[in-house]
Amino acid sequence: MKLRIVLVLLWCAGLFVCINTANFSLLLRQHMVHFEWHSHPKMSDLLLLSDFRYYERPTFLIQKIGHFSGFFGLTLLAATGVRTPRAFWRGVALAAGYAVLTELLQPFFGRDGRIFDMFIDGAGITLAAFIAHRVSKKRWYTARRHRPYPVSRAARQ
User: Does residue 153 fall inside a structural domain?
Assistant: First the structure.
């Protein structure tokens, strides 16, 4: 449990650095992280879909794959092998909330946050949630089946 929390926090920190660094090309080529704070970003840019004109650039595809795989990994860490369905949904909600948060924060760091990237993040979250649900469901069923005796509602209180 504690290790899972540490891993999820480390993964979130790594995503934060990769998503909000001021120059993604500089991060890829020279492994340099640089943040720039913009106190009054143009939030209407979140709705732009004109980034597709850059699809020929190699970094465009790398960024989109990074969005998908980053949130896929976060969801797997947060939602796989948990003990209850409630913990599973908490893990999925954490990943979805973090995806929205990072996209909303990108303009403050001089990056272009896009609603389209939220959908890519959501695709990674959805696929990972499907896999995690299949894996975790077996654990939930096995845990319920192997109780030493049935616990009545009165005994639980």
Answer: no
Q: Is residue 152 part of a domain?
A: no
27 contacts 21 by C-beta, under 8 angstroms: yes
Q: What's at 99, amino acid-wise?
A: A
Question: Would you say residue 32 has pLDDT above 90?
Answer: no
Task: Check if the beta carbon of residue 71 is closer than 8 Å to that of residue 99.
Answer: yes
pLDDT of residue 152: 60
3-state secondary structure of 35: coil
Tell me, yes or no, whether 150 lies in a domain. no
Report which of 87, 92, 102 is spatially closest to residue 130, judged by C-alpha positions. 92
Q: How far apart are the C-alpha atoms of 57 and 111, rounded to whole Å?
A: 17
Total domains present in the chain: 1
Give the mean pLDDT of 97-114: 89
Q: Tell me if 156 is assigned to some domain.
A: no
The reply to whether the predicted model has a pTM over 0.85 is no
d(CA 102, CA 98): 6
Q: What is the mean pLDDT of the chain?
A: 84
